[in-house]
Amino acid sequence: MGAPPLGPTIIPPVRTLWLRDRALDLDRVRLLGVLNLTPDSFSDGGRYLDPERALERAREMVAEGADILDLGAESTRPGAAPVPVEEEKRRLLPVLEAVLSLGVPVSVDTRKPEVAEEALKLGAHLLNDVTGLRDERMVALAARHGVAAVVMHMPVPDPATMMAHARYRDVVAEVKAFLEAQARRALSAGVPQVVLDPGFGFGKLLEHNLALLRRLDEIVALGHPVLVGLSRKRTIGELSGVEDPAQRVHGSVAAHLFAVMKGVRLLRVHDVRAHREALGVWEALYGGDRPSRA
């Protein structure tokens, strides 16, 4: 198989991400800085359980160029144990309230309607549901609060068993069909906007992730903003030979730049500074005569 074509071949059909009363221009690639409030996330579990440390890290990511902060209080790595609703709230809500004071949009990564409802009441700007809005209560919440929602693909709605279902005839066609159907369902129920996420690593092996990367333009062509999150993941380690997730920065940047060349304008990353610097160079080369600095 030949190398996939390089270069920015796709112009995203959606130019704006609406985050409650804010409009985020997608002519520029936007970064979601990952803030894990968990003891067991695969990359940085336990580092930001303390609310003060979490707020300090949030400030750092904003200074480094994060456009959105993505907060999660339950690990969804393969085989992760579920977190009780009250425990997830205990971890998430105080930090969310503090981070909202920083003045940047905040995304909440949760698959529980009870947690999502409290987060949206506090003022979260984006609902990030790794189960792909399968639960009608999540759809209803996003519609009622008037917030955009991320629809992510996972073959089953349970991270603990998802890798047992990593079987596809055509992974791109199946992921695309799921995302398209869920997006249509959410929009028809009153959700104001959806963001599509192919779910790299969620019930997918290396060959599935590579196929999705190479054909990301097919998902971009569905006409919704597309979010990609390969930061520090196993796929990056398999391709680069780097075992320590925290050291997979360079491989993560490379994969994400390829996604940008396919039309992706939203990246979920741990290493904000490295991505912002790389994107500054990319925008100067490919983004027109005047790279966006907004």
Automatic annotation (TrEMBL):
Its cofactor is Mg(2+). The keyword Transmembrane does not apply. Keywords: Folate biosynthesis, Magnesium, Metal-binding, Transferase. Signal peptide: none annotated. GO terms for cellular component: cytosol. GO terms for biological process: folic acid biosynthetic process; tetrahydrofolate biosynthetic process. Catalyzes the condensation of para-aminobenzoate (pABA) with 6-hydroxymethyl-7,8-dihydropterin diphosphate (DHPt-PP) to form 7,8-dihydropteroate (H2Pte), the immediate precursor of folate derivatives. This is Dihydropteroate synthase.
